[in-house]
C-alpha cells in the first residue's frame, strides 16, 4: 500500500492523533492524496482511515457515513475506523459493510504495525468483522470500565510531535497534546470510555517537543488534551498545568503559546498571573462552561456551580483591564469563548430564561452553542424532563443571536479603540493563502484578521491597521479587514 486518505472527526486531540498517524505512514513511504473527496473516484487510494468521534449518537452515524462515502469513492481501498467510536463500540463499527478494520484508542499507537501485519493476510469473509488489536467484545458499558483496562502511557503513544507533514506544509501553528483521558464522567459524556483515565506528558518531554516545533519553524503552539485542566492529576501532588506553561515560556524561544479548553475552576490564579506577566502567553481562554445554571451543572455532574463560573469570568475581566508586562493594554483585552449546551434534560422554559439572563450579564466574548444530543449508554439519557428537539433548536438560535451581537460589539469596540488611540494590532500571525481574495491571521487574543492575499507573508508576525468589520452571518463569525503596516 502506498496512498492513503485520513478523515478526522471531533476534537483537537483527534486532529493531533491523525497527524501522528499520517507521520507514521509517511515514514514508511506512504503518500497522502488530495482532499478525501476532491481525490475523486479515479484516485488510487489503498487505505482510508476514519478517525472517529463518539460524543453523541449523531457522531457515530457520521463515522459510519464517512466510512461508506470513502469506500464508495475508493472501492479498491481498505477502510479502517479508529478513534473513540472504535474504542467504545468496536463490534458495532466492525459490522458496517464498508469497514474492513477497527482499531481502538488503546491500540492506536501500534495501528500502523497492525495494518501492515494484517494486509493481505485476512480472508475476505472475515474482513467485515475484523477488530484488530486486543479489544475484547463486550455487551454492557459497565463491563468495560476504563479504569479496568490497560492504557498506553502518553510517552509510549506519542513520542515525537507531528510537524511538517507532506501535504500539510503550510502550518503556522501546531497542536501539542500533553494530556490524554478524563476522570470526570459527566452524565452526558462517553469520552472517558473512549480515551481512558487521565495521563500526562512530562514537563521535560513537553518542553523538548516544543523546542523541536520551534526549530521546524512553528510560531505558535496550542496545548491540548482530552481534559487539559487535569494535566498532572495522575501525579498526585506533582506539577500542574501552570508549571508546564511556565516551563515552556522559560525554556523555549516559542513566539506564542495558547491553551485549549479549560473548566472555569481550572483557570487558576497562577495561570492568570502568567498571562499578566508573560506577553507570549496568548490572552485567550476557551471555557468549557456547558451551562451557568447550578441546577443543570449538577445534573451534568460538573464540578462547579454558578458562583465559580461568575468568579472565574470576573477575574478574567479584571485581568483584561490591567496593563500587560510591557505596560500597555492590548486592544480587545482577553478573548473568552465558551461552550454551552442548551436543551439538557431538566432545562425548563424558566431555567432557560434564567440562563439567558445570566449569560447576558456575564463577561465573555463568544459562545459556541450546541443543542443537547443524546449519547446511548450515558446516564443523561435516563434523566427526566427531556426537552423537545424543536425547543433545543430554538434555544440554540436564541443563544447564537446573543453571541453574535456580543461578538460584533467586541470587534466594533476594538476597531474604534484602535482608531482613536492610533494603535495598530501587533503580532498578527499570518496564515496560509487561500482561494479567496483574503488571507487570514489571528492576533494573540484571537481576533480574526483578513488581509489582501500575499503568500510571501505566511507564518510572519506582523502589525496591521484595522479598517472595517466583516460579518459572516451564515457562520456566525466576524473578522476585521486590515492592511499591513510597518512599525
Residues in helices, as a percent range: 25-40%
CATH class of the largest domain: Alpha Beta
CATH third-tier fold name of the largest domain: Transcription Regulator spoIIAA
How many separate domains make up the residues? 4
Distance between the termini: 52 Å
Question: Biggest sheet, open or closed, and with what strands and sense?
Answer: 6 strands, parallel
Q: How many whole angstroms does the radius of gyration measure?
A: 23 Å
Dominant shape: globular
- Identify the strand order in the major beta sheet: 2-1-3-4-5-6
Q: Give the helix/strand class.
A: alpha/beta
Number of strands: 18
Quote the beta fraction: 15-25%
User: What's the rounded overall pLDDT mean?
Assistant: 85
Name given to the CATH architecture of the largest domain: 2-Layer Sandwich
Number of helices: 15
Which segments are poorly predicted (pLDDT under 50) over 5 or more consecutive residues? 35-42, 120-130, 132-143, 156-162
Amino acid at each position: 500500500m502506498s496512498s492513503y486518505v485520513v478523515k478526522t472527526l471531533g476534537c483537537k486531540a483527534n486532529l493531533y492523533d491523525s497527524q501522528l498517524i499520517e507521520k507514521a505512514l509517511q515514514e514508511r513511504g506512504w503518500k497522502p492524496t488530495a482532499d478525501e473527496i476532491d481525490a475523486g473516484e479515479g484516485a488510487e487510494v489503498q487505505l482510508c482511515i476514519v478517525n472517529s468521534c463518539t460524543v453523541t449518537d449523531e457522531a457515530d452515524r457520521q463515522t459510519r457515513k464517512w466510512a461508506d462515502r470513502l469506500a464508495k469513492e475508493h472501492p479498491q481501498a481498505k477502510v479502517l475506523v479508529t478513534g473513540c467510536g472504535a474504542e467504545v463500540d468496536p463490534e458495532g463499527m466492525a459490522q458496517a459493510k464498508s469497514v474492513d478494520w477497527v482499531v481502538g484508542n488503546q491500540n492506536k499507537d501500534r495501528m500502523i504495525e497492525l495494518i501492515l501485519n494484517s494486509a493481505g493476510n485476512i480472508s475476505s469473509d472475515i474482513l467485515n468483522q475484523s477488530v484488530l488489536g486486543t479489544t475484547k467484545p463486550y455487551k454492557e458499558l459497565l463491563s468495560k470500565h476504563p479504569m479496568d483496562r490497560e492504557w498506553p502511557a502518553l510517552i509510549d503513544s506519542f513520542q515525537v510531535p507531528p510537524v511538517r507533514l507532506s501535504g500539510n506544509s503550510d502550518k503556522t501553528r501546531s497542536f501539542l497534546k500533553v494530556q490524554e483521558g478524563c476522570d470526570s464522567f459527566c452524565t452526558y459524556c462517553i469520552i472517558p470510555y473512549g480515551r481512558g483515565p487521565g495521563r500526562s506528558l512530562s514537563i521535560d518531554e513537553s518542553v523538548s517537543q516544543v523546542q523541536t516545533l520551534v526549530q521546524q519553524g512553528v510560531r505558535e503552539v496550542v496545548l491540548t488534551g482530552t481534559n487539559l485542566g487535569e494535566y498532572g492529576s495522575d501525579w498526585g501532588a506533582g506539577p500542574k498545568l501552570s508549571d508546564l506553561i511556565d516551563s515552556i515560556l522559560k525554556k523555549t524561544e516559542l513566539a506564542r503559546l495558547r491553551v485549549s479548553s479549560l473548566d472555569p475552576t481550572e483557570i487558576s490564579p497562577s495561570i492568570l498571573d502568567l498571562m499578566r506577566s508573560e506577553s507570549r502567553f496568548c490572552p485567550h481562554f476557551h471555557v468549557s462552561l456547558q451551562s451557568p445554571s447550578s441546577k443543570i451543572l449538577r445534573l451534568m455532574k460538573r464540578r462547579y456551580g454558578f458562583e465559580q463560573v461568575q468568579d472565574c469570568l470576573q477575574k478574567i475581566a479584571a485581568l483584561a483591564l490591567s496593563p500587560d508586562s510591557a505596560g500597555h493594554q492590548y486592544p480587545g483585552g482577553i478573548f473568552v469563548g465558551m461552550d454551552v449546551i442548551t436543551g439538557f434534560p431538566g432545562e425548563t422554559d424558566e431555567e432557560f430564561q434564567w440562563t439567558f439572563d445570566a449569560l447576558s450579564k456575564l463577561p465573555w466574548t463568544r459562545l459556541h452553542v450546541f443543542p443537547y444530543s443524546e449519547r446511548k449508554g450515558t446516564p443523561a439519557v435516563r434523566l427526566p424532563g427531556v426537552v423537545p428537539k424543536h425547543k433545543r433548536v430554538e434555544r440554540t438560535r436564541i443563544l447564537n443571536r446573543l453571541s453574535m451581537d456580543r461578538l460584533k460589539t467586541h470587534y466594533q469596540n476594538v476597531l474604534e479603540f484602535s482608531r482613536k488611540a492610533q494603535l495598530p494590532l501587533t503580532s498578527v500571525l499570518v496564515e496560509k493563502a487561500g482561494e479567496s481574495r483574503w488571507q487570514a491571521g489571528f492576533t494573540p487574543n484571537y481576533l480574526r484578521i483578513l488581509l489582501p492575499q500575499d503568500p510571501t507573508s505566511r507564518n510572519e508576525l506582523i502589525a496591521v491597521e484595522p479598517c472595517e468589520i466583516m460579518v459572516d452571518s451564515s457562520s456566525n463569525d466576524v473578522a476585521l479587514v486590515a492592511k499591513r503596516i510597518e512599525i
